[in-house]
C-alpha cells in the first residue's frame, strides 16, 4: 500500500527515526533497569522540542517487549495523539499476529511518499528467530517498486542491520540475506539510505554511495564493539533525517541529556 503524506516537490522534509522501544504491557514495569514507557515518551518530548515541523516518524522495530494487544494499542493511541504521520515495521521481539501493520498482507512492503521522496518499509523479522531475513517475494516486490519509483529519492527501512557492527554477539543476529538485498539495490542510483534498528546504537556505514544508518534505542543502549552482550552508558535517543529537495540527506542523532537505569540481572535473550 502507498501512503501519500505530501505532494510538495520543492520542500525539505523532516523524518524522525525511532527504534527498539521495547514497550511492556504494564508501563510502570522496568526492563533491564529502565522504564521503556517513560524513556520513550521522554525521547518523543525531545523530538518535539528540537523540531517544530515533523513530516513523518518511522519506527524500525522491536516496538514491544511484551507484544500484546494492550501494548500495541497503547502505542498507537500515544502516537496518534502527536498529530504526525507515523509508520512502523516489526522487529524480532514483536508478534506478527498482533503487530499494527499497514498492510492486510504483512509480507507486502509499505510505501510512504513525500514529494520526490519515497520511504519503503520492509519486514525483516522471522517468526521465532532473532536474526533477520527479507523474504524472496518481498525482495522481488522491492525490485518492482524501485523500478516504478526510479525517478524518486529512496529511503529503505527495516529492523535488522545488513552490515556487521564488529560486535560478535549481535552480528550473529544480523540480516542473514543482506547480500540478496545488496544485489537488488545495486543497480539503482537513487537509493539514498537504508535505516535500521536492532543494534541499540548509532552507526553509519557507506556502500556504493548509500548510507546505512542505525539509531539508538529509546530505552537501553548496547555497548559498541563488544564481543559479548553488554549495555552502554549512553542515553536513549533518536535519529533526525532531513530529506532535502535536491535528493541529499542530512542526519544527526539526538540523545536525552539525562536518563536513569537501575542495576538489573535480567537477560535480554540474545546471547
What does this structure look like?
The protein contains five helices and twelve strands. 19% of the residues lie in helices and 23% in strands. The chain has helices spanning 36-50, 69-80, 136-148, 168-171, 178-185, and strands spanning 2-6, 13-18, 56-59, 86-88, 110-114, 117-121, 153-157, 191-196, 203-207, 210-214, 237-243, 249-255. It is α/β, with parallel strands linked by helices and 271 residues long. Helix 3 (136-148) runs parallel beside helix 5 (178-185). The longest helix is centred in the first third of the chain and has 15 residues, at 36-50.
Layout: helices, strands, pairs:
Layout: E1 2-6, E2 13-18, H1 36-50, E3 56-59, H2 69-80, E4 86-88, E5 110-114, E6 117-121, H3 136-148, E7 153-157, H4 168-171, H5 178-185, E8 191-196, E9 203-207, E10 210-214, E11 237-243, E12 249-255
Parallel strand pairs: 1-5, 2-3, 3-4, 6-7, 7-8, 8-10
Antiparallel strand pairs: 2-11, 5-6, 9-10, 11-12
- Neighbour order of strands in the largest sheet: 1-5-6-7-8-10-9
Number of helices: 5
- The counted number of beta strands is 12
Distance between the termini: 36 Å
Mean pLDDT: 93
**Quaternary organisation of the protein chains:** single chain
Radius of gyration: 17 Å
State the shape. Answer: globular
Main sheet record: 7 strands, mixed
* Structural class designation: alpha/beta
Q: Give me the strand/helix succession.
A: EEHEHEEEHEHHEEEEE
